[in-house]
């Protein structure tokens, strides 16, 4: 705009052409013109389908189920939802299908096996067939916000086990080693984590060793939460509620009690100590922008752990005496009164 002559021409050549050579609409143009290509036919779409979601199960909030949301007045015939077809599996068993006995249903929830869940996490789509489109169309699968912290880092990695989490909080393995690439199997975090350094004895089944390792990990939990308090909200949520978090560790502890791998009292001790870490974390300095988010997430994590402790009490009635209750009260009061380092 500010140049002319040869200086302008030099700059003009740098701008890519947006049109081709003009065609004069005269007799010589015959043979150089062609009618426009027809627009592709509009693809059929399952408009009766509102959402296909992965959401926490009503029976177990830590498990994911498939939730299909429908618009009943738009359902004019049978339909079915399957996994995406593959070369090895061109025909797939329906995950969920039309129920003629309940045509006005607005949503349908379906339990998933672990293999079905892993496949949905990999493909992130399902295949929908309905009365007017037998060949079907792919439809996206979304995850509700409250379920995202329960997702594994990768579809086949699963969640770290208790001894993995303890080793991480002790600083013996890195966060990356908790989730090795799929072609490396269980990765480098499995071998030898529970072996005594002196004699190579496997201590994975000895409760006193497990509790000792857990106690040595408490400082790491505190350090991890201290750093998380200075992070954005998404990182706060992962550190408090995700696959590597005090809640994930508490969940593993509760499972150990339910399977009989550890005494209820030992598991109760661990849950109380985790709650103590969360009580302390509530007062950790957070960035002003996310301070309220930090407190809300700590409260959410605490509620989940309190629920696990209450579940433990209900499952093993009479096990937790007045002495245990006094211990629990003393620990939590101490952490609530303790100053932030």
Q: Can you give the mean pLDDT?
A: 84
Distance between the termini: 63 Å
This entry's quaternary arrangement is single chain
Helix content: 25-40%
Main sheet: strand order: 5-2-1-8
Indicate the topology:
Layout: H1 5-12, E1 49-56, E2 64-70, E3 79-82, E4 94-97, E5 107-110, H2 114-123, E6 125-130, E7 133-140, E8 142-143, H3 162-170, H4 207-228, H5 233-241, H6 246-258, H7 264-281, H8 291-315, H9 322-337
Parallel strand pairs: 1-8
Antiparallel strand pairs: 1-2, 2-5, 3-4, 3-6, 6-7
Kindly describe this structure:
The protein has 9 helices and 8 strands. The protein has a 4-stranded mixed β-sheet with strand order 5-2-1-8, with no helix packed on it. It has 341 residues and is of the alpha+beta class. The N and C termini lie far apart (63 Å). The chain has 2 domains: 49-147, Immunoglobulin-like (Sandwich), CATH 2.60.40; 152-337, no CATH class.
Give a quick set of tags describing it:
9 helices, 13% strand, 4-stranded mixed sheet, 341 residues, Immunoglobulin-like, alpha+beta, 38% helix
